[in-house]
Amino acid sequence: MPHRVAVLALDGVLPLDLGIPARVFNEACEPDGTRLYSVVTCSLGGRPVRTHEDYRIVVDHDESALESADTVVLATQEPSERLLATGTLPEELAAALDRIGPGTRIVSLCTSAFLLAAAGLLDGRRATTHWALCDALARLFPDVDVDPDVLFVDSGRILTSAGGAAGIDLCLHLVRLDHGAAVASAAARRCVVAPWREGGQAQFIEHPVPQDTDRSTSATRQWALDRLAEPITLEDMARHAHMSVRTFTRRFRSEVGSSPLKWLAQRRLAHARLLLESTDLTVARIATACGFGDPVALRKHFHTHLGLSPLAYRRAHNAPEPMTGR
């Protein structure tokens, strides 16, 4: 049975962000094309919704859709003056959120984190929102651990994302959690978006498109991706880019939003996940193929970033068990 996703649209919703969950989740499919998610959009009372732009939208469902959902997504809605002044929700919205089941996964896109915070769902949790409003969120809700420097935060049942394209990253992250890297990558290809941006990547990248393409680090990034099995140092990457280590590190961070070695570790981990899902290679061979050197280092990365051992991750994604070895 498909995983049921209910997207809640409220007055002031950003139309682009409202379409993100359906766009991503509907592209997650079985090999035969069967969709893995069923996405519905709802509003309070099933009423038409006034968007942030110059038009309204009509939806086919009311807030009762929240009761049967496996995942609820609050589409981006800029916080109202009342919410910013009082930190409280309108009674109708509070009652709607109360209809969400205790085991339901809840996701906020961008500034809808304010709604979750006002409902008390972020108390004691790490969360994020658009970088321009992180300070306001922290001031208004001091019990929330606001992180302004990440694309999204996965704190288990509750997940929050930054603005714009970070909502795509978070939805792909959920597909990856539910069905593995191969399904998420295929969905990303069909959406024509990047298949993997780590949640810990910086929200604001000063120069996303380098003015001097001859001095970009993109060629070196591809060079490193083609050699994940090899030991690669920061000095190796800087040498390939014909830059000093200091210049390369600064330029890399301005283009990618993270340090070169952190980015490289993320790419190696992503490749290891894909090999665990799609092959019967032993953990030792996967560790070598991804440049971790030995199984101990691979297991350490999996426990740190995923909370699972490589073999537990393989079992969770119904991947083939290796014939021999570990």
TrEMBL record:
PROSITE patterns (UniProt xref): HTH_ARAC_FAMILY_2 (PS01124)
Organism expressing this protein natively: Streptomyces adustus
CDD domains named among the record's database cross-references: GATase1_AraC_1 (cd03137)
Keyword presence, Transport: no
Pfam family, one: DJ-1_PfpI
Protein name (database record): Helix-turn-helix domain-containing protein
Keywords, ordered alphabetically: Transcription, Transcription regulation
Domain HTH araC/xylS-type: residue ranges: 218-316
The organism's place on the tree of life at top rank: Bacteria
An example molecular function term from Gene Ontology annotations: sequence-specific DNA binding
Record flagged with keyword Transcription regulation: yes
InterPro entries: Class_I_gatase-like, DJ-1/PfpI, Homeodomain-like_sf, HTH_AraC, INH-QAR
SUPFAM superfamilies found in the cross-reference section: Class I glutamine amidotransferase-like (SSF52317), Homeodomain-like (SSF46689)
